[in-house]
Each structure stands twice: as C-alpha cells, then as structure tokens.
Amino acid sequence: MPVETQEERGETASPVGEIQLLRWSLLSWEPLPLSGASLRSHDSWTCSLLVPECRLWDPVHVFLTPVVPQWPFYNLDTMFMRGLKRKCFDGEEDIEGTLAGIKAIPSYNLQRQSLLDMSLVKLQLCHMLVEPNLCRSVLIANTVRQIQEEMTQDGTWQMINMQNTGQASVDRLVSTDILCRSSREQAEGKHVPGYSTFSKDFEGDQAQDSSETMSTASSVQALRNLQSNVWEMENSQENKGNFQKSLDQIFETLENKSPNSVEDLFSEVDNSYYDLDTMLTGMMSNTKMGHCDGLEPFPSPTTTTSSSNCKSDLNELDHIVEILVES
Amino acid sequence: MEEDVETRKINSSFLRDHSYATEADIISTVEFNHTGELLATGDKGGRVVIFQREQESKNQPHRRGEYNVYSTFQSHEPEFDYLKSLEIEEKINKIRWLPQQNAAYFLLSTNDKTVKLWKVSERDKRPEGYNLKDEDGRLRDPSMITSLRVPVLRPMDLMVEATPRRVFANAHTYHINSISVNSDYETYMSADDLRINLWNFEITNQSFNIVDIKPANMEELTEVITAAEFHPHHCNTFVYSSSKGTIRLCDMRTSALCDRHAKFFEEPEDPSNRSFFSEIISSISDVKFSHSGRYIMTRDYLTVKVWDLNMENRPIETYQVHDYLRSKLCSLYENDCIFDKFECVWNGSDSVIMTGSYNNFFRMFDRNTKRDVTLEASRENSKPRAVLKPRKVCVGGKRRKDEISVDSLDFSKKILHTAWHPSENIIAVAATNNLYIFQDKVN
C-alpha cells in the first residue's frame, strides 16, 4: 500500500476512490442555542416502559449485565437465535427460582409468545401528546399479524377459557391505562392501581354482549385516554365510571350495526393480555431490581383453542389498529 | 481493510466542553445547497441554522474554507391540533435548497404538517438621508424642512435576514417525511405516510395529490410511504419507497394520480434470513437518486442498496452497514432502535456512498474499489485538524486492541443524518446535538 498520497507528493487532490488514504480533519461546530428558545415541557422520547428513567439508555448493556430490569425476557436475542439455551447470569437466582415452574428451555412457542406480548404492549403504548408514528405502528401490527397467523396455523393459539358459567366474579383484564404510564410516575415508582375488568361470563346473550362490549370499551376508552392532554391516575371507581360512559357510547354506535359486525368487533379476551397483566403486576409492584417474586409462571403452551377464536382475535387486533391509525 | 493510516495531529484544541444536551438541540436534518457554499441544519426545536463557507484566503491556505454560522432562525413553532387534541411537533423533518437564481437563497423546510419556503438574504447597505424621517426614524416636522436631499446607500454591517415567503399548510393528514424539489424548479412534492402532494411554489392554497395509498378500510393498512424523491433531470419522474422494502418509480405523464407505478423495485426475500423481524428491517428509511439519475440508493435497517433504474428485480450492489446487529434484533426491537430511520448520501461523483450507524459511527463505501471504512464522530476521539482513525467493530471471539465489541456500542448515539458536499470531499455529520464537518486533508 502506498505510503504517500498524491496530495503529499504535491499532485492534485486524491481521487475519492482511495478511501484508505483519505484523511479527515475535524472542524466541529455546534448549533448556537437561541436565547429564549422554548424547550418542550413534556417528555416525548421513546422509552421502554419497563426500565424506569430510561432516557436514551443503553439496551445492550442492560440486557447483558447482572443489573437486569424487571422484564423477564432477559437476553431475548439469545433465546431467539439459539432457541434452546438459556444463559445464566449472576444475581438472577430469584428469577430462576420463580421461573422454576416453567420449562428451563424457552421453546420457540414461548419466544414467539413473548414477542407477541411485547408487540402488543408497543402498540398500546403511545406518546400522550404527539401522534404515534404511523410507520412504526404499521410495522408492529404486521409483526403481530404474522405471529398470529403462524400461531393459527400451528394451532397453538392460546386462550384462557373464560367460559366458566355462573362466575360473576370480576376477572382481570389489562387496561391500557396501566400500560401507559407517564414518565413521572415511572420515576416515582408508583403503582397505578385498579385495572377495571369485567368478566365475559355474564349470563344470557345480551349480558354476554355487554361484557364483551365492556372489555372492548376498556380498550377503546384507554386508547382515547392516550390522546388526552393530561394523564391522570385513575382509581378503580373512576375507571368503572368511565367505562359506563364509554359503554353507553359504544351501545349507541352499535345500534345500527348488524349482528355479524358486532360479533366481529367484540371478541373473546385474549390470553396474551392476561399474561401481560400478571407479569406486569409482578414487575410494577417491585421496585428493586432483580426482584421478581411477583412473576407468575408462563402459561402452558399446550392450551388448545378453536380456530374461530383465533379469527375473532385477529379481528380484535384489526379493530385496535383501526382505532390507532384513524386517530 | 488496511488500517495503517497516519494520524497526524495538530495541537490546536478548541473543543468546547458542552455536556448539556437539551432535546431541542437535537439535529434532525442536514443539507448542503447546490454549490456547497451553504450548509443548513434543522433541529428538534424548529430552528434552522445555516453555515456558510469562508472564502479561501491566500494567507492561510491550509484553512481551506471553514464553515461558520451564517444565519439562524426559527422556522416552525409547536402547534396544537384542537380537533385531535394532539400537538404538532416543530421538529424540522427535512430541508431542501432551491437552486440559486438571484442574490438571495431559498430553502424549503418542513415539520410534520407544514412546508415553508424561506428566503435568506443579505443586507449590507442601508439608505441614509431621508427627508421625512431623521436618523432615528422619528418623523420630522414638514414645516421644518428647508431643503431636499436624495437618500444615499451607505454600507452597514452585514445582516442576514430570513423571511418566510410561502407557507404550504393543511394538505397532509399524516406526518410529512420527505420533500423534494423538482428539476423544473417550479414545483415540488411533499410526501407523508400515505399520500404524496405536488405543489407549485407560487400557489399555497392548493396542491395536487399524485399518490394515495390509503386503503378504503384502514384496518387493511399494511404499508406506508417512507421516502420520496424527484428524478434529478426528468421532471416527470419520481420514486417513493415503502415500509415493505419496495420502491416504486412513477411517471406523472401517464395519469394524474400515480397509483400505478411505472417500475417496481423489490428484491426477493432471502429465505435463510427470515425471521419475525424481516419485514421491519426491510423497511426503507431513505431513498436517493444518484447525481447522474441512473441509480437509486436505498437504506434499510442493516444495509445500503444501489439499484439500477433499468433493473427492477434486484439491486446491483448491497453493502452491509452493521450486520453484527442481526443477532441483536430482538433487543433493538424492544428498545425501538429497530425503527430508527437512517439516511444515506452520494458523493458528488456517485462513486462513494455514506450512511450512519450507532455509537456515532458512520460508514463510507467506495463503489469502485469495494472498500469501506468506519469512522467515528466524537469529540473524545477527535481534535481539530486531527486525522480520523478508522474504527472496527468486533463481533465476537478475540477482540483486538482498538476494536469495539458489539456489546459496548452506545445505541443512544446514532448518526441518522449526513450530507456530502456536491463537488468536494466535505461531509457534514449530525451526531445528536453536534454537527461535525469533515474534509479531506490537504497539506
């Protein structure tokens, strides 16, 4: 390799082709801040929910060091790439202990399920004041569809069977209110209480519809909340009041719709929401890192489901996407 | 890639130590004008800062044309959409210069919703000797005026003023991601996620919609427009890229609404690399015509591809920008880095292409020699007049000295925006809130 460039030999500027001999001098400027330039008063950076105060954090470090966030899918990439091995980190005995109930080897189904859950969380997390990025939402929604299609083909679509008749107790449905927290609350480590949930096991068809209505109303309501200016912490009573209002709205709009569309709009509760809920409950109630006592075991991947449930879940997803993109 | 590059350093450190990083200062676009004399940057706070190249002086030939601040103005202000209860960011998404036709400079700057045409002009003379006003501007009593004089122009300190000449608003429902000036210099287009509009510079209350990919039922939406650009010579031709990794070339002569493409560029998927993230990493973040107009370059998450306009079924060149991230896609998905939109640029002769990466690295690929280099834009590793040292990322196994392992890359330091001087080897690299200007060293 020549030591001198043509420049050094006094010839004309070297052709760009000789990249290895290009040398660069640094002239560095920064834009001068204007006096009185207003800074944005709210926080709008992309932030992972599960890592508090994560303004421009280094994800790779977080994942691969012993200080691990509450997200149980540590070392996701290893799980996804190798599929069979699970790395053990120092200081994570707690995690290992609580996850003793599940298989030690994360299966492909598990990885896929975790990716689906993560994607659903992402779809529901939105910046409060600024419109969500449509490209990002579409890409995530496509990923979710792809996973769900594959799950449908495999027949491993997981549903919690909530058809326990006569059960009037309130089951827990993840409200997106919980998933979207202001960064302030995150920093303070508050636990936003009260997901209002409704069982879909009311007796009678009308009641069935109304319960499904409420479950979707909760997501619609939550999505509307995402676009409100002020992020308020709602207690469970407030939630129920809001649900009642949105319930009325939903009923009004649905009066003219055909029964088929009603069926399409309101689907059964998705098991993935349930999983997300239990895991997030555990995570949020623990402020210490590495403390994962609240984690519940992953659902068994052997639950079977009918294909009609899968289709209605896909429709529910479409419905959510529709709300997101039309807002 | 041989790495025995000399590292001559000149001991003149003038680096300021600004450790604050306000979000409003994050640079969101960088663009040279057509002569390279001016360099415009837009930031997240809606400001535009224009740098001008110093005239070369014979006294100091080694200080060949440094860039100094020429003008700063607030282009866009934050707005509030009351109907949707959403804020419209003032962040400048793109700046495009118009070719110079008189003494003033014109540029287009856009945020998510509104495009503005700015005129940047110099004022170095002012008239003195008015009859009806005195020097302070106060009106004189007409009865006190005894003689008439002709005002004369006297030199004053150079003042650069920026005035908004046109505001093109209310034409986009979705977020504008690209603007492109047509080669006829009378029209330009603005592209958002689902539509592309054609504007005339003189008309602000109307625009033509030339592409609309919004489905009738939004539930069926699976693809969005990510970037668009006019052909540099043919005023009827433009391309737009999509989130599915496809590029469509359209001819405006065929129909008013260019929903049907003239050419469709798509590379068949490699089945061995298929994963859940395949679609996301294939989403094209930037598309640029070469200066010759013969090629287009596209940037997706991991690669840069050069396409020949005459061949639609695959690119003619593919360059790996940071393939070591392929095994980290899930982490990058989790922290949203996988959605980062990197830009790419051609050099003046279309022989070298450049794009950014993480850890303040940027990459250059020489299309002729097939050599590539990774450089870093950071204050710690560079001093003024110092030669940049090529960097290397090691993927695993033994890490040599001076190499950086993938796990210690800083993903918050990303270089999304770069620009290349149209005729010389001068590049501008935006690293978060810092602008670096590099030029090849001349003795």
Automatic annotation (TrEMBL), chain A:
SERTA domain segment(s): 108-155
Residue segments, region Disordered: 190-218
Chain coiled-coil ranges: none
Pfam families, per the entry: SERTA
Family matches, as InterPro entries: E2F-SERTA_domain_protein, SERTA_dom
Biased segments, Polar residues type: 207-218
Protein name: Cell division cycle associated 4
The species this protein was found in: Gallus gallus (Chicken)
From TrEMBL, chain B:
Keyword Repeat among record annotations: yes
UniProt cross-references to InterPro entries, sorted A to Z: PP2A_PR55, PP2A_PR55_CS, WD40/YVTN_repeat-like_dom_sf, WD40_repeat_dom_sf, WD40_rpt
SUPFAM superfamilies xref list: WD40 repeat-like
GO molecular function, one term: protein phosphatase regulator activity
GO (cellular component) term, any one: protein phosphatase type 2A complex
Domain of life: Eukaryota
Presence of keyword Transcription: no
Assigned keywords, A-Z: Repeat, WD repeat
Family, per entry: Belongs to the phosphatase 2A regulatory subunit B family.
Protein's UniProt name: Serine/threonine-protein phosphatase 2A 55 kDa regulatory subunit B
High-level lineage: Eukaryota, Metazoa, Chordata, Craniata, Vertebrata
